[in-house]
Design a protein that fits this description.
Layout (H helix, E strand, L loop, with lengths): L1 E3 L2 E6 L8 H12 L3 E4 L2 E5 L3 H10 L7
Antiparallel strand pairs: 1-2, 2-4, 3-4
């Protein structure tokens, strides 16, 4: 988690090989009801959502560190 302009941002990175980064970003934004963006190999979700995003990614078969 980082802060951008004083607000928390959840960052998901090292997503090389994900078929559709934009689709995954859309699913995560819907999951936590927050805005965000998908660019390069990174997804940024506005707010502190580490636990929910982590649980969802594990459920979807992604390998999660930390």
């Amino acid at each position: 988690m980082e802060k951008r302009k004083g607000k928390p941002v959840t960052i998901i990175f090292d997503l090389n090989g994900v078929v559709s980064l934009k689709d995954l970003g859309r699913q995560l934004k819907n999951l936590v009801s927050a805005g965000g963006t998908a660019k390069m190999d990174t997804i940024e979700i506005q707010g502190e959502h580490r636990e929910r995003v982590r649980a969802y990614l594990i459920e979807q078969g992604f390998q999660v560190k930390g």
